[in-house]
């Protein structure tokens, strides 16, 4: 993988040397051997410095679903990855999976993992915002982050946000230039968090971008998993069933977009990260259930309950239902045009079968 590096922040003496006018050397030939010796020492120091600076070192604040999946891909690409989580139990689990993990809870007044963050070349922020507070990390640690990271090795950051910032467009298409109009407290906190991280990037003079994600799905988190595990729907999920449009994105496409952004960094650009098909939730669940019944009907019988309560599979999905607000279709044109991403899963119609393949390969479900 090719990676973009900014040279502007280097404090290397050799870079400063390059700025000296050549006349300076010619006027004093007796100092030339000394300068050359110094130059060679500096070259060695510089190449050592470059070797350590040039390491692709990603720091992931919040090793949740996206964080883990992306960390795994980066490791395979030869990156050094450091991540955080909030509990000892999760840290042990992640360490068992081969990740370098630090405990970090934004409510903790100490930012103990910061010394490791300073050495990172890239930073992914995958911690949700908090209603009424904004971004919990910036809320508690902004000044400390700013002062410590300004002496660090950071070149790129990306904040993972949500398409909820657009509020309700009545179902019209929205792109990144559409004014944000958050209606819920949590969406308002997202907008604050976006601004905060972009400002930090600007103040540090590094590349900073915001990714507005649709509903994330992938292996281990999908309509298939919900049906097979008989997970009950949250109140919010039940309410969202009434929506005509729901943006979603497969985790593999989020990772593609992140890698594209690392290779094509920007200063303050925002990208919608969604697929091409903002289909209603009921339609997706009906498709998922039909897929299970067709390919692995016995799995339903192995589950904790035989009857599927959550999924109105036979119910005809209608677009005339009373809606609950937050209706919008989110455009991914910029993701494709500027980052050059070709979606692996442009619709749940290709994304869910790929997860089914994964489940079959991994002998899912294992309910014992
Ligand atoms: N899920 C979706 O459909 C969706 C849609 C749009 C946007 N997003 C946003 O995209 C981002 C990534 O999503 P995801 O699904 O990967 O999230 P996730 O699985 O919920 O992971 C969130 C991570 O943040 C950590 N975290 C939470 N609160 C924290 C705090 N106060 N201090 C420190 N760490 C904290 C969690 O720690 P532990 O690992 O210890 O739990 C976890 O590692 C999140 O901001 C999410 O809200 C999600």
TrEMBL record:
The gene is LOC104595612. Pfam families: Epimerase. GO terms for molecular function: racemase and epimerase activity. It comes from the Eukaryota. Residues 153-273 form the NAD-dependent epimerase/dehydratase domain. Gene3D superfamilies: NAD(P)-binding Rossmann-like Domain. InterPro entries: Epimerase_deHydtase, NAD(P)-bd_dom_sf. Belongs to the NAD(P)-dependent epimerase/dehydratase family. Keywords: Isomerase, NAD. This is Uncharacterized protein LOC104595612 isoform X1. CDD domains: SDR_a4. Signal peptide: none annotated.
């Amino acid at each position: 993988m090719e990676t973009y590096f900014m040279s502007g922040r280097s404090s290397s003496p050799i870079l400063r040397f390059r700025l000296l006018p050549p006349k300076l050397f010619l006027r004093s030939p007796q100092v030339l051997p000394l300068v050359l010796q110094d130059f060679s020492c500096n070259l060695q120091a510089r190449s050592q410095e470059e070797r350590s600076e040039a390491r692709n070192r990603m720091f992931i604040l919040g090793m949740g679903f996206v964080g883990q999946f992306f960390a795994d891909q980066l490791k395979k690409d030869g990156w050094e990855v450091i991540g955080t989580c909030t509990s000892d139990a999760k840290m042990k689990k992640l360490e068992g999976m081969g990740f370098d993990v630090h405990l970090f809870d934004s409510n903790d007044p100490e930012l103990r993992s910061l010394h490791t963050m300073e050495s990172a070349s890239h930073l992914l922020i995958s911690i949700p915002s908090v209603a009424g507070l904004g971004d919990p990390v910036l809320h508690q640690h902004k000044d400390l982050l700013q002062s410590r990271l300004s002496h660090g090795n950071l070149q790129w950051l990306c904040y993972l946000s949500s398409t909820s910032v657009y509020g309700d467009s009545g179902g019209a298409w929205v792109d990144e230039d559409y004014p944000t109009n958050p209606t819920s407290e949590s969406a308002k906190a997202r907008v604050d968090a976006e601004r905060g991280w972009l400002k930090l990037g600007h103040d540090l003079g590094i590349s900073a971008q915001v990714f507005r994600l649709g509903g994330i799905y992938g292996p281990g988190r999908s309509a298939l998993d919900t049906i097979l595990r008989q997970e009950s729907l949250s109140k919010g999920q039940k309410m969202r069933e009434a929506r005509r449009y729901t943006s979603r994105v497969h985790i593999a496409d989020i990772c593609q977009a992140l890698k594209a952004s690392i290779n094509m960094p920007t200063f303050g650009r925002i990208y919608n990260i969604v697929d091409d098909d903002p289909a209603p939730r009921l339609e997706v669940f009906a498709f998922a259930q039909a897929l299970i019944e067709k390919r692995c009907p016995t799995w339903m019988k192995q589950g904790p309950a035989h009857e599927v309560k959550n999924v109105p599979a036979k119910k005809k999905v209608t677009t005339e239902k009373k809606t609950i607000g937050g209706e919008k279709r989110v455009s991914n044109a910029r993701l494709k045009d500027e980052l050059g991403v070709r979606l692996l899963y442009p619709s749940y119609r290709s994304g869910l079968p790929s997860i089914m393949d994964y489940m079959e390969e991994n002998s899912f479900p294992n309910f014992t």
